[in-house]
Amino acid sequence: MDRETMARVLEEIALLLELKGENPFKIRAYRQGAEMVRSHDGDIVAMAAAGELEGIKGIGEALRDKLHELAATGALKFHEDLRAGFPPGLFELFEIEGLGPKKVKALHDSLGVKSLADLKAACESGKVAALSGFGAKTQTKILEAIARHETFAGRFLLGDVCGLVDGILETLRSHPAVSQVSVAGSCRRSLETVHDLDFLVATREPAVVCKDFTTLPEVASVIACGETKASVRLGNGLQCDLRAVSNDQFPYALVYFTGSKEHNVALRSLALKKGLSLNEYGFTDAKTGEVPADIPGLEDERAIHRFLGLQYIEPELRENRGEIEAAAENSLPRLLQLSHLCGTFHNHTTESDGVNTLQEMAAEAMELGLDYLGISDHSKSTVIANGLNEQRLLAQVAEIRELNQTFAGFRLFAGSEVDILKDGSLDFADDILAQLDYCVASVHNLFHMPGEEMTRRICRAMENEHVTMLGHLTGRLLLKRDGYAVNHAAVIDCAAETRTVIELNCNAQRLDMDWRWWRRARDKGVLCSINPDAHSTDGLHRLDLGVRAARKGWLRKEDVLNTRSAAEIEKFLKTPKVKR
Ligand code: DGT
Ligand code: CA
Ligand code: CA
Ligand code: ZN
User: Fold this and answer.
1) Has residue 137 been placed in a domain?
2) What is the value of pTM for the model shown?
3) Could you identify the atom of ligand 1 that is nearest to the CA of residue 186?
4) Could you give the number of structural domains in the chain?
């Protein structure tokens, strides 16, 4: 039994209870339990196995007994009984956008759908359209969602593979025959999802290193193993490729395998203008194919870029979106770094759907070296997340003000993640919002309204003087749900006009607003706030993912609100939006 398995069992219980139509509070308790298990500081599995979960915050009696049983015996009867009530293939259906427990239940009960394959067949034969509560439109949507699911299959969230990557890099680095190591490909470029991982090593014994790569503990099966390359599949299905090259070749191989393909093509055509052809091994004369005598030994990527007359191009920028031209003009941005962040906004506590208290979140933020932390629990309309009403919100604000008296060199900012209602008005009246330090406004329902209406809805919210920033602009869940239809360009223009900050949500599934839009926003003077949307102390540790996305969007320190000091933030939040 490990932590992740334990957490997954709790999540599955939540899903099964939902399928049975149980009450949402009970369901949420299991979801929070899962988050709690993941984020607990101690060895929660050992504690559970020893029956010692007594008195741990966030774990009630019922959950405690279940965790004891699960850790001690490796199974949970309650979970198995629940599971036995449904066919195993039914769980895949939840990965299809638009299918919640109610619809899944209807498909199962009326059409005997027991798996994704069943569902596809039922849609193709028109049976789903005929089902009451579904119709032809829904059937088409389901088919589209299945197609999307099929194209997503085989991609992984960047945030889910970072830990694995670090572990593998560490092992490779410690290999006695290896002198240099790097990850390459989409992962090094910090793309939000990756298809496979590409590792690169410099070694004098490539065949040995390739062989050893295939015996890493994470490896489930070996796809190929040769003299200079190997491919394996890990237990979670992720493919990892290894290339082993010489020390001299390493920088060229790193440039090549970092990509992107489009960037490489552009870089090669630049080299060609100098009469050189560039590949993963080095430069050759484009006409003769010989290595020119006057080519200096280039020791790293920086030297290769310099040789081509370019500034060093950070991996995140290598998407052929103008970085080569900018590097030639010496006008690349000086990119944001994690160490620039002084604090962060948009974090939840146990008051809504978080698993850690206000005090615990503050303590963790201090531990992380942050100077301030913004709290923004859900507002009353988001019932499923136990959103705060006016009374609870104001009580929390009072608590924050009191806590702030006890801190030295740290402060909490009192906010709210306030729902943007259907017409763009907000879940709280202005006189309530005026009592907060700041406010994040987000859309949490009615995702399917037409794009124009959604854009108007969001813009109207940003026009409110109390809305400091816009939360997760599109509501997308990567590899699961597309964002709602919304006109990014219009929202960015409106943010610039109303001086509303736009959030870059660092949750691995969101990374919303997408990195492809940030350069435009930056050029219009729109500020970015890098927000973890933390629902636990653990969530506060994911700011790095947001920084990677921001760098990918060409953002500099000065483009990001939470690089400012607490005193500067205080001043910023007190200045009326129109005067910023
Ligand atoms: P992925 O794996 O789909 O998330 O994306 P990448 O970029 O990691 O792609 P991958 O693993 O197929 O290849 C790694 C890098 O190797 C890629 O970014 C550029 C380089 N590369 C691979 N195949 C080609 C190619 O046919 N032409 C060029 N110019 N570069 C290539
Ligand atoms: Ca790759
Ligand atoms: Ca690859
Ligand atoms: Zn939200």
Assistant:
1) yes
2) 0.82
3) 8
4) 3
Pocket probe for ligand 1: among 194, 198, 238, the residue whose CB has the most ligand atoms within 8 Å is 198
Residue 245 lies in a domain: yes
**Mutate which of 155, 182, 186 to test ligand 1's pocket (most atoms within 8 Å of Cβ)?**
186
Residue pLDDT tens, the chain, 580 long: 788 889 989 998 998 998 888 888 889 889 889 988 888 888 888 899 888 888 887 788 888 999 999 999 989 999 999 999 888 888 889 888 888 888 998 999 899 999 999 999 999 999 999 998 899 999 999 999 898 888 777 899 999 999 999 999 999 999 999 999 999 999 999 999 999 999 999 999 999 999 999 999 989 999 999 999 999 999 888 999 999 999 999 999 999 999 999 999 999 999 999 999 999 999 999 999 999 888 888 999 999 999 999 999 999 999 999 999 999 999 999 999 999 999 999 999 999 999 999 999 999 999 999 999 999 999 999 988 899 999 999 999 999 999 999 999 999 999 999 999 999 999 999 999 999 999 999 999 999 999 999 999 999 999 999 999 999 999 999 988 889 999 999 999 999 999 999 999 999 999 999 999 999 999 999 999 999 999 999 999 999 999 999 999 999 999 999 999 999 999 999 999 988 8
Output DSSP code: residue 282: E
**Domain CATH code at residue 346:** 3.20.20.140
Cα 243 to ligand 3 centre (Å): 10
CA of 311 to the centre of ligand 1 (A): 23
Structure tokens at 360: 């615990």
Domain end position, chosen among 135, 152, 169: 152
Domain membership flag for residue 580: no
The residue whose CB lies within 8 Å of the most ligand 1 atoms, and thus the one to mutate among 192, 231, 232, 264, is 264
- Final residue of a domain: which of 295, 328, 361? 328
Q: For residues 450 and 363, state if they share a domain.
A: yes
Residues 366 and 299 in one domain: no
Whether residue 94 is found in the same domain as residue 201: no
Please work out, in degrees rounded to the nearest 5, the angle formed at the alpha carbon of residue 212 by the alpha carbons of 209 and 217: 140
CATH number (domain holding residue 230): 3.30.460.10
Note down the domain range covering 231.
157-328
> Which residue intervals of 40-193 are DSSP H helices?
44-49, 61-73, 77-84, 101-111, 116-124, 127-130, 135-152, 158-173, 185-188
Q: Which atom of ligand 1 is nearest to the CA of 259?
A: 18
Q: Are 328 and 274 in contact (CB under 8 A)?
A: no
**How many of the other CB atoms lie within 10 Å of CB of 535?**
23
**Is there a single domain that holds both residue 287 and residue 178?**
yes
265 lines ligand 1 (CB under 6 A): yes
Q: Is 562 in the pocket of ligand 1 (CB under 6 A)?
A: no
H helix runs in 195-300, sequence order: 206-213, 250-258, 261-273
My answer on whether 133 and 165 are in the same domain is no
Give the whole-angstrom CA distance, residue 292 versus residue 283. Answer: 8
Task: Decide: 194 in ligand 1 pocket, CB within 6 A.
Answer: yes
Q: Is residue 515 part of a domain?
A: yes
